[in-house]
């Protein structure tokens, strides 16, 4: 069953590939506790009296954000699979295969 045209399927495939690449890299950087993402994780909201209380909470936020990126990348993989299926289906109908 055709849901997407051939051009739309190709566009969605390219967009999905970019999303997979970007979110995987972001997940790796977040999992390695890159300081670049500190502002996005609202680390200033963590109430702690010492560095020993602060670090486990900060690391937990980093790892949670990394897992969210990897889950989103998996959703993009599903979108890529669907888009490629639509592209192949359109080509089969177009060329009578």
From TrEMBL:
MF-aspect GO terms: RNA endonuclease activity
Concerning its family, UniProt says:
Belongs to the RNase K family.
- Its recorded name reads Uncharacterized protein
Membrane-spanning ranges:
12-34, 65-84
Q: Where in the cell is it found?
A: Membrane
Top-rank taxon: Eukaryota
Question: Which GO cellular component term is one of those annotated?
Answer: membrane
The protein's predominant localisation is: membrane
Organism phylogeny:
Eukaryota, Metazoa, Ecdysozoa, Arthropoda, Chelicerata
């Amino acid at each position: 069953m055709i849901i997407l045209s051939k051009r739309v399927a190709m566009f969605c495939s390219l967009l999905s590939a970019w999303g997979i690449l970007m979110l995987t890299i972001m997940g790796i950087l977040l999992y390695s506790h890159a300081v670049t993402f500190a502002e996005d994780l609202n680390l200033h909201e963590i109430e702690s009296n010492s560095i020993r209380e602060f670090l486990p909470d900060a690391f937990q936020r980093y790892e949670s954000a990394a897992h969210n990126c990897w889950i989103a990348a998996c959703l993009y993989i599903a979108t890529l699979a669907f888009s490629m299926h639509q592209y192949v289906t359109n080509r089969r109908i177009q060329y009578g295969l």
